[in-house]
Amino acid sequence: MTPDALFQLANPLALVGWLALILSPRAPRLAQGVALAVPLALSLLYSGLVLAFWWEAPGGFNSLPEVQALFTHPHIALAGWLHYLALDLFLGAWEVRTARAEGIPHWLVIPCLVLTFLFGPVGLLAFAILRFTLVRKVLP
Length: 140
What we know:
Layout: H1 3-22, H2 28-53, H3 64-70, H4 74-101, H5 106-119, H6 121-135
Helix pairs in contact: 1-2, 1-4, 2-4, 4-5, 5-6
């Protein structure tokens, strides 16, 4: 399967996880299950790509130009994208679980989820600010 075909499969899969989190008050256990299963599936695909193609990719992690070169390899670029999809969704699931446990209204968490989906760390920052404002905690 080509990197583009895998990309076309991974994106809707991740969206299913995000949709489950946004709708989680309706079925919290199902949402958390989906939001765990999807990142695990993406992580499995990520691991396979890294194991299969890491050695033929140029670049590395010692400088920004090396990282840029690393992501010129299509399979490694896809692995990088899967990394984002998996970890951001995992983070979103943590936000929902934490908010539920601490009594933060779900409607206040939804903007944080959107930001986490689109901009990862910005969503985490938004959730940390929300959490600190409402329960005086930032991290566990």
